[in-house]
Amino acid sequence: MPIIKHREFIEAPIEVCFDLARNVEVHTITTSHTKERAVAGVTEGHLNKGDTVTWEAVHFGVKQRLTAKIIEMERPYRFVDVMVKGAFHSFNHTHTFETANHGTVMEDVFAYKSPFGWIGRLADYLFLEKYMTSFIIGRAKALKIIAEKRD
């Protein structure tokens, strides 16, 4: 099971970073390269514990849907979402935030399991883990830009 970890320092208060990270409209902006949009569940505003959201996006040239649920939330330090329906066998995405050097360190830990047994593991090795790492880092950097402009 691949585990992707990324830490991003953001020159903005922890509350700002936390709220931007769980905001549906901001998520759409930070994933615009995949045409991601919320199509069911919570489709605007902030996600909270127990909420679900279905994202529609284009990955590898194919339109896909994925439903995630927020299963843990400790504002403004941590929230966790898990896939309840979608292309992965499973995933768990932990978002943590800590105050540091007059700003915030945001950390993503994305653990996933690909479908299709050994074929999925081969896809991880060949391209999927690199793609998902780039996706997580790209979203974090886009969120950083938004947060630092708001502060």
In short:
The protein is 32% helix and 42% strand.
Describe this structure in words.
With 151 residues, the chain is α+β, with helices and mostly antiparallel strands. The protein has a single domain (3-150), classed as START domain (Alpha-D-Glucose-1,6-Bisphosphate, Chain A, domain 4, 2-Layer Sandwich), CATH 3.30.530. It has helices spanning 14-21, 24-30, 117-150; strands at residues 3-10, 37-41, 52-59, 62-74, 78-85, 90-100, 103-113. It has a 7-stranded antiparallel β-sheet with strand order 1-7-6-5-4-3-2, covered by helices on one side. A hairpin with a 4-residue loop joins strand 5 and strand 6 (90-100). Helix 1 crosses helix 3. The chain is globular and about 45 Å long. The N and C termini lie far apart (37 Å).
What is this structure's SSE topology?
Layout: E1 3-10, H1 14-21, H2 24-30, E2 37-41, E3 52-59, E4 62-74, E5 78-85, E6 90-100, E7 103-113, H3 117-150
Antiparallel strand pairs: 1-7, 2-3, 3-4, 4-5, 5-6, 6-7
Helix pairs in contact: 1-3, 2-3
User: Which fold name corresponds to the CATH topology?
Assistant: Alpha-D-Glucose-1,6-Bisphosphate, Chain A, domain 4
Q: What is the top-level CATH class?
A: Alpha Beta
The percentage of residues in β strands lies in 35-45%
Supply the number of structural domains.
1
Going by helix content, strand content and strand pairing, the class is alpha+beta
Main sheet: strands, sense, barrel: 7 strands, antiparallel
CATH architecture: 2-Layer Sandwich
What proportion of the residues is helical, as a percent range?
25-40%
Q: Name the overall outline.
A: globular
The chain-level mean pLDDT equals: 95
**Strand order in space, largest sheet:** 1-7-6-5-4-3-2
Low-confidence runs (pLDDT<50, min 5 residues)? Answer: none
How many beta-strand runs? Answer: 7
Radius of gyration: 15 Å
* Beginning-to-end CA distance, first to last residue: 37 Å
The topology string of helices and strands comes to EHHEEEEEEH
CATH superfamily annotation = START domain
Number of helices: 3
